[in-house]
Amino acid sequence: MTESHTAIREEVAKLCQQFPGEYWRAKDRDRAYPGEFVAALTEAGYLAALIPEEYGGAGLPLSGAAAILEEIQRQGGNGGACHAQMYIMGTLLRHGSDAQKAQYLPRIATGELRLQAFGVTEPTSGTDTLALKTTAVRDGDDYVVNGQKIWTSRAEHSDLMLLLARTSPRDQVAKRTDGLSVLLVDMRAAVGNGLTIRPIDTMMNHATTEVFFDNLRVPAANLIGTEGQGFRYILSGMNAERILIAAECIGDAKWFIDKASAYAKERQVFGRPIGQNQGIQFPIARAYAQMRAAELMVHDAIRQYEAGENAGAEANMAKMLAAEASWAAGEACIQTHGGFGFAAEYDIERKFRETRLYQVAPISTNLILSYVAEHVLGMPRSY
Amino acid sequence: MKILVPVKRVVDYNVKVRVKSDGTGVDLANVKMSMNPFDEIAVEEAIRLKEKGIATEIVVVSIGVQQSQETLRTALAMGADRAILVVTDVTTESLTVAKILAKVAAEEQPGLIILGKQAIDDDANQTGQMLAALLGWPQGTFASAVVPNGDRVAVTREVDGGLETVDLKLPAVVTTDLRLNEPRYASLPNIMKAKSKPLASKTPADYGVDPTPRLTITKVVEPAKRSAGTKVKTVDELIEKLKNAGAIA
């Protein structure tokens, strides 16, 4: 990591210190959106890290965004409330027209427009994205959208949604990956006019929703790229997402390990610190080793991504290893703390619930293993 | 008006320092270093004066190891305009620093010098006072408010009995106390801009100052561990115990 990233980490840490554990616990208890935290990050320009300078962002490479998100998690916060504002715009940046980029990116950079909702997953298709059933049918100057999405995070806290919908029936396309298109949906105008958002209560404070489309009219001008090519556009953004989520998991793991080792040194039982017992030391030391190994994979994935190589395998493996490392660190941390690990005021049980998500989202571990088996090791496709 | 802000790189305030086993000092290996918090307050105050249109330029200066450059970049990211690094590997003593700062001030001709009242590493609380004496300028130490007005500055000082306001003629030296302000964190665009702000590298010799230490540290020890206390039920019992311990007659 370069020197500037050290400076970025330090300043992000200072920002996060304005939002201590009490802040996150209150939001968690009330299942409330951490709007003040998101506003502070936005005002300080961190969510515009990846937007090119010509559109008002900082134009940082992926490693800069990874450093920001890792630091937020390391400080005990949760970037899940807004991390997508950083990377969803990548699809618009890579595949949008010059007019679309000029219209949206500068306002996404200032935070005036929030583009942090990504409508892909559906209740009946799950990870089988090509089986999605939401349709967008061209009608004059509009597309008419019908269908349903689920696990659409932050939909209630986003102005725009990047939507993947079927524009050609599955049996009428030349290639199986054709026929899906990406639309930029202005949700502010759409709610109540064909768009319904329903929050889903989950085990942690993560503003996720299900979204219903009922003859929602979206201007054809909001089509990103070429009709029918949407699946490829979405795939191209997934490596960045996986790498950034992996960086967040590394931050979580470091937070858990810092907490666990500090407590193990202080807590006295039977007249000596519990950290003197190998039964306490070893799980923490092992979690540290696991975190460092995962961190190296994250760095390698970033290096490949920034070099313009196909980072698919490394991005996937980094996400899997980092999510497993943060979970192992959480496990060691809660066990080290004994009963206190379950007390909300220690923040451990909250982080424990929050970091569990990343073995499931944005892609589950099994699908990553399938990817590695098929694309790296050349075994037959299993699904 | 130009403001000069000296800043020091010190062990981060969150670090639990450990005394080296040979008792010669504090272990600095692999320890997080940051800007002295009182200096951060000084940088913040200078930036606020610039935002109010009172200051026109903020020059930050640090005397120390090459890595003090990072501390200066932090100040530049917060909003200072340019930086001077006086590189030296020897332990910097207050008088050495004050002498170099006096020479920097003679060169830069600032209207105001704002610096931390003390650095949290050696807690000497000397540099500001020594600097004012060397320059022959008035000083307002332990400031909780700094209000420039024309060619004068009103400095509210936190003293034992409460608050005291002194009215100083500029140029002057002000040292900051904890309650002067709350320093900002830098925004991402400002961190990026700071990278291209000018940073001049100098040596003590450039200012004709010999940094060789004149003081010797004989021993550094950890504070004694507190022994356990006892609880008393009544005031009479307390007085009895204090008498027995010889604390009162």
Automatic annotation (TrEMBL), chain B:
Oligomer and partners: Heterodimer of an alpha and a beta subunit.
GO biological process: carboxylic acid catabolic process
Cofactor(s) needed for function: AMP
Keywords: Electron transport, Transport
Residue intervals of the Electron transfer flavoprotein alpha/beta-subunit N-terminal domain: 23-211
Natural source organism: Glacieibacterium arshaanense
Family: Belongs to the ETF beta-subunit/FixA family.
TM stretches of this protein: none
High-level lineage: Bacteria, Pseudomonadati, Pseudomonadota, Alphaproteobacteria, Sphingomonadales
Gene Ontology terms for molecular function: electron transfer activity
Role summary: The electron transfer flavoprotein serves as a specific electron acceptor for other dehydrogenases. It transfers the electrons to the main respiratory chain via ETF-ubiquinone oxidoreductase (ETF dehydrogenase).
Listed Pfam families: ETF
InterPro entries registered for this protein in UniProt: ET-Flavoprotein_bsu_CS (IPR000049), ETF_a/b_N (IPR014730), ETF_b (IPR012255), ETF_beta_N (IPR033948), Rossmann-like_a/b/a_fold (IPR014729)
Protein name: Electron transfer flavoprotein subunit beta
Domain of life: Bacteria
